[in-house]
From TrEMBL:
Transmembrane segments: none annotated. Belongs to the LarC family. Pfam families: Ni_insertion (PF01969). Keywords: Lyase, Nickel. It comes from Dendronalium phyllosphericum CENA369. HAMAP family: LarC. One of its GO terms (molecular function) is nickel cation binding. InterPro entries: Ni_insertion. This is Putative nickel insertion protein. The keyword Cytoplasm does not apply. The keyword Zinc-finger does not apply.
Length: 423
């Protein structure tokens, strides 16, 4: 089972609402403070947590109170902090590695959006007003909390976090540059960067803040309805203002039977794959060769046929295509266009896959690429399959007039020689 999470934002999302939901799920406030203070901002803020009522429902409110001692105040307002300075603070704070990577990614995304709005480079963006302390505590605190909860990572290293569509809000807010329309420009830019789904719930207030939007758009894998999951626990984080509906961010923590990424128990990754199949009894066999090529061009992972007996005793073939879900429609279009079929069945399956990479090796006749597959992580990495690439071997075999099997044997031999030396 894989630990995943879903952010449900009926009244939007802000950084402190994220913190509230995480503390509500059991992330200890002391842990957050201890790690945040490694950033060197202990003097500049205080973190307070309380249970509050929102329209008769109880939720956790986290306050980030800024300490107004003159020196820091001066420093933060007039000087502000720029992205490179914040990145240095995060890198020096020896945070857990996932929290560090996620925090850097969120700040970078926020700076890219703000920069695009003002027409300046991300590095030049000035996190002003609260000397960025607010944003630092919200963003780094949220990343620490998600890491602490043990939400698993995908292959890109991002958490398996999903998010609902966003309510747009409305009206105006006061900001450093005067009155601004809601959603504020940085939030709109972040939504645009990730093509987020939005809707209006009729509430004319600022519902999604730039910090909240940066956290969600950087860390969420996908936006929309909740993924298939069993819910284990729900965290409730309160917003600051009272609204017609309870101003609460709900963070669902649960388990998903699929998408386990390099689960340590079975070290093979599971991935979701689409399978298309159709049987055909009235197509010129020459067309089948063309269909294969067209399907691989459309992104198929594998294509194969099996001979079958069909109605009226006709010999036919069963065509099966395996592809990633995002290529399903393209592959389906090829089958309809290039064959006589009138219907295609589709199923979604899980497949366990070994980690793999292509490594070049040198033989006396030239270079051959070798596909290497393995199980497990580095110290206990077990290589399970080593295969020279067919085309490379064929090319050298033709060029030097040597049997294909001989080239293949030499490629394997030089791979094993090289790797036994390394070990």
């Amino acid at each position: 089972m894989t630990k995943i999470a879903y952010l449900q934002c009926p009244t939007g999302i802000s950084g402190d609402m994220c913190l509230g939901a995480l503390v509500s799920l059991g992330v200890p406030q002391e842990y957050l403070i201890e790690k945040l203070n490694n950033l060197g901002i202990a003097q500049e803020y205080q973190l307070k947590t309380e249970l509050v009522q929102r329209n008769g429902q109880q939720a956790t409110k986290v306050h980030v109170d800024l300490v107004d001692n003159h020196h820091h105040h001066e420093h933060s307002h007039h000087h502000g902090r720029h992205l490179p300075e914040i990145e240095k603070m995060i890198l020096k704070a020896s945070l857990p590695s996932r929290a560090e990577a996620w925090s850097l990614a969120v700040f970078r995304q926020l700076a890219v959006a703000e920069g695009a709005v003002h027409g300046i480079a991300p590095e030049k963006v000035h996190f002003h007003e609260v000397g960025a302390v607010d944003a630092i505590v919200d963003i780094v605190g949220t990343c620490l909390g998600l890491d602490w909860l043990g939400i698993e990572s995908d292959r890109q290293g991002l958490p398996l976090l999903y998010c609902s569509p966003f309510p747009t809000g409305g009206g105006t807010v006061r900001a450093a540059h005067g009155q601004m329309a809601v959603p504020v420009p940085a939030v709109l830019k972040l939504w645009e960067m990730r093509n987020c789904p939005v809707y209006s719930n009729g509430i004319e207030r600022e519902l999604v803040t730039p910090t909240g939007a940066a956290i969600a758009t950087t860390l969420a894998k996908d936006f929309g309805a909740p993924p298939a999951m069993t819910i284990k626990q729900v965290g409730l984080g309160a917003g600051s203002i009272n609204l017609p509906i309870p101003n609460i961010l709900r963070l669902w923590l649960g388990e998903s039977p699929i998408q386990s990424v390099t689960n340590t128990a079975d070290t093979n990754s599971l991935e979701t794959i689409s399978v298309l199949e159709t049987q055909i009894d009235d197509l010129n066999p020459q067309a089948i060769g063309y269909v294969f090529e067209a399907l691989f061009a459309a992104g198929a992972v594998d294509v194969f046929t099996q001979p079958i007996g069909m109605k009226k005793s006709r010999p036919g073939i069963l065509l099966t295509v395996i592809c990633h879900p995002e290529n399903l429609l393209n592959c389906e279009a090829v089958i309809f266009r290039e064959t006589t079929t009138l219907g295609i069945r589709r199923t979604t399956q899980q497949r366990a896959i070994l980690q793999r990479e292509i490594q070049p090796v040198l033989t006396e006749y030239g270079e051959v690429h070798v596909k290497v597959a393995w199980q497990g992580e580095s110290p206990k990495k077990l290589v399970t399959n080593v295969q020279p690439e067919y085309e490379d071997c064929a090319e050298l075999a033709r060029k030097h007039n040597i049997p294909w099997r001989e080239i293949q044997r030499l490629a394997l031999q030089s791979w094993y020689l090289k790797h036994n030396k390394d070990d």
